[in-house]
Amino acid sequence: MVSPLTTTAPAPRPPRVYTAGFWLMCLSSLLFFMSFNMLLPELPDYLTSLGGGEYKGYIIALFTLTAGLSRPFSGKLADTVGRIPVMVFGSLVCFICGFFYPFTVTVLGFLGLRLLHGFSTGFKPTGTAAFIADIVPLARRGEAMGLLGVAGSVGMAAGPTLGSWLAAHFSLDVLFYCSSGLALLSLIVQGTMTETLAPAQRQRFSWKLLKIESWAEVFEPRVLIPSAATLLFLFPFGAIFTVVPDQSRVLGLTGESKGLFYLCYTGASLLVRLLAGRASDRYGRVPVLLGSSGVIITSLLLLAFASSVPVFLAGAMLFGLGTGLNSPTIYAWTVDLSHPARRGRAVSTMYMALEAGIGVGALLAGWVFGNEPAHLPFVHLLSAGSVCCGLVFLLVMRRRVPAVLAEEAA
Predict the structure, then answer these.
(1) 12 within some domain
(2) Where do the TM regions start and end (predicted)?
C-alpha cells in the first residue's frame, strides 16, 4: 500500500518539436521576403522614370547575380562565425537598400543599388535554413522546412500586393521606407534568438574568412546529388515566370485578372505545404521527389497545350502542388546529407544550384519564346524535359544515397 505522504515524480515532458525560436524564425523570414518582394511591381516604372526603361531586365538579373556570388561566403561564415550573424547581415543589407532607393536619381545608381540589394538574399536564407536544421529533429525536418516555406511564400505573395497598394495610395518613397521598415523588423526578431552553431566551431570574424582557398570551401560534396536535382527541378520556375505574363495576356487575362496564375499557384503551394509537409518525413525524400516530379510534368503539359483559361489555371494549381512538395523535401534532404559542421556550406551549395536553375530557365525561356506566342508550348515542353531529366537522375543515383546516410549515422 502506498503511503498518502508518498509522491510520485511527474514524468518529464517531452521536448517541444517547434520552439519559440522556430516560430520567430518563420516570422523573420515572412518579414524579410515581404520586404524586398513588395518593390518588384513598381521598380520597372521607377527605373523608366529615371530614363532607364531599356534596362528593366537588369532589375532581377543583378539582384540574382550577387545573391549567387555571395552564397559561398555566406555558407562558410555560417559554419564559422555563426548562423545569426549571417542572417543579421542579410537583413541589414535589405534595410539599408530599401532606405536609399528614394535617393537614387540616376540609372547607374539604381542598378548599383540593385546589385548591392542582392547580397541580402545571398545571406539571410542560408543562415535561416542552417538555423532551422539545428533546432528541429530529423524526424520532423521535412515538415519544418515546409512550414518555413509557407512563411516565405506568404511574404512573397503578400509583398507585391501591399507594395502596389502603398504606391497607389501614398507614394513610392513611402513604399521604399516601408520595405526598409519590414527588413528592420526582421532584424529585430533575429536579435531575440540564441546562436545554434556549436561554440567549438565559432570564430571571431576576420577578413581572412572571406578568402576562398579551395573548392571544398565553396561546395559540399555530400549534397551534390540533391543540388543537381535542384538545378533540374527549378529550371521550370525561371522559365514559367518569364513567359506567364505574356501567356496570360494571350488567353485574355488582363487588368485585375492578370494575376490569377500567381494566385492559383501560390494558393496550391501553401495548401500542400500545410497539409503534406510531413510527407517526406514519413515516406522518404526520394519517393516524394519522384511523385512531385510527376505532378510538375503534368502541370507543364497542361500549360504547353492550354487553349483556355480553366486549363491554364489548372496547370498553375498543379505546378503549385508539385513545387510545394518538391521544395521543402529538397531542403530537408540537403540537410540530411550534410555534416553538421558544414551545414551552412551544404545549404549554400543547394541554393547556388537553385539560382542557377532559375537563371538558366529564365534565359532559355526568353530565347525560345522570342516574343512569339506560337513558341509558348516549346518553353513548357523544354521545362518538362528538364524535370524528366531530374527524375531519371534520381532513379539512377538514389542507390548511392543510403551509403551516405549510413556513414552519417555511424
Answers:
(1) no
(2) 20-43, 55-74, 86-111, 174-198, 223-244, 259-276, 288-306, 312-334, 346-369, 375-396
